[in-house]
Amino acid sequence: MKAHPGITTLSQKFQEPGHSQVQEVDTMHSSMDKTFKNMELHSPLAVVKGLCNITCGVKPFTIIQMRPDDFFDYKTIAKTTPGLHLNRIPYASIKQVHITGGHSAQIKLSHGEVNSQEVQPKTTRQGTEEVSIRRPKILIGVKLIEKKKKNHILSCFKHLEAPDKAYWRALFAENAKRAVGK
User: Fold this and answer.
1) CA-based end-to-end distance of the chain
2) pTM of the predicted model, to two decimals?
3) What is the bridge-based pairing of β-strands 105-108 and 96-99?
4) Range 80-94 average pLDDT
5) pLDDT at 1
6) Which of 68, 102, 136, 154 yields a CA-CA distance of 20 to 30 A from 123?
7) Cα(12)–Cα(99) distance, rounded to whole angstroms?
8) How is residue 138 annotated by DSSP?
9) Adjacency order of strands within the sheet including 105-108
């Protein structure tokens, strides 16, 4: 919000199955379940192929492929930023978060809840202080594929379609390059 002064409020709602405010998400998941129920998924390519064939109503899904620079290491920031106490936020229970700037956020633990709770993840014994959070580093690379996993995938090659085989061969080649560069 500091980088974009025109944005004064940020609200985020999290899915709660069967809740009308996120009914569209339930519908999308149902469409995905129906499509994938009868598909054999042997690689991410098969998942993308399946997603391309799903329609929600009359509109097809829009698929946005993430790139490596879309992934950030927030875990390190959370652990290494002095004065940032993220353990005060009950992440597993939150249904809505409302941030208006400053040092606190309003949270709701159910969509029907009228009143919200205030949480202050940036406080110290001296009171509220400004905590400067640096931009997280981009997560680099993928973990190497273990030999046992590679052998299992290779044993299934006779059952795979050509695009899936090509995907795995390319991934194994990249994996071999990374293993040499370690």
Assistant:
1) 39
2) 0.51
3) antiparallel
4) 72
5) 63
6) 136
7) 9
8) B
9) 10-13, 96-99, 105-108, 117-119
